Amino acid sequence: MLKAHLRGAALAAAILALGSAAPAAAKDFTDAERAAIEKIFREYILEHPEIIPEAIEVLQERVATASVRENAEALFNDGYSHVAGNPRGDVTVVEFFDYPCPYCKLVNPSLKKLIESDRNVRVVFKEWPIRGGEAEFASRAAIASEAQGKYMAFHDALMAHRGALNEKTVFEIAARVGLDVERLKQDMRAPKVQEVIDRNRELGAALNLRGTPAFIIGDKLVPGAIEYDEMARQVAEARKK
User: Quick one: which H or E segment has residue 97?
Assistant: First the structure.
């Protein structure tokens, strides 16, 4: 298994080292020349194995960016995800999250600060209840709250809550932010609510996401809980592009 990983890593390093000219030039090499080039790559990688993790990381970033671009419409303009900040902002931040996730709760104040401090950022919220059970129930309630125009207030209150998010607690929080709970219960049963969750699950799988929170900033996948300064830096980088 280790040898297979090393062979794959070496190949990734070789591809990166060859660069964009490789496909055009490869057909011009003789068998002997190709063998010599492969020998050079092999010797270099064996002498400098420290490049392997870096090469794999770069390759993974390129694959992730390509996946983001392939799924751009579903990510940025799906027509059903809640959009905060400037709807016409020049940089879009997409967050995949679920409500019981402690790291999602940790990162929410930073995301709110970003929305408040950057008047040209657009934020798209993707309900992705990977923890099942309570997570999915809370997500269904949040999606349904959109019909009453209370999504952000409800979202922030769910994120601020510490402890279990069972049915009783979710509806108590809903009432506290001014939602009509009986209407919310009705709206939660609408087929489109489950459709949103199913689509987001498919999208998360297409992007090969491993956990929450996960951000898409511009065309870059940024996994994990990042603080405000890193969010702002990533947005600035995306803006340069």
Answer: strand 91-97
CA atoms lying within 13 Å on the CB side of residue 10: 18
pTM of the predicted protein model = 0.75
Which distant-in-sequence residues (6+ apart) come within 8 Å of 123 by Cβ?
83, 84, 85, 92, 93, 94, 95, 111, 114, 115
Residue 130 carries which side chain, given as an amino acid letter? I
Q: Is the peptide bond before 102 cis (omega within 30 degrees of 0)?
A: no
Locate 30 and state its tokens: 């003789």
Q: Is the pLDDT of residue 28 over 80?
A: no
Measure the CA–CA gap between 215 and 212, rounded to whole angstroms: 9
- Check: CB of residue 129 under 8 Å from CB of residue 184: no
Structural contact between residues 110 and 67, judged by C-beta atoms closer than 8 angstroms = no
Partners of 125 in beta bridges = 82, 95
Q: Is 76 helix (H, G, I), strand (E, B) or coil?
A: helix
Rounded Cα gap, residues 13 and 53, in angstroms: 9
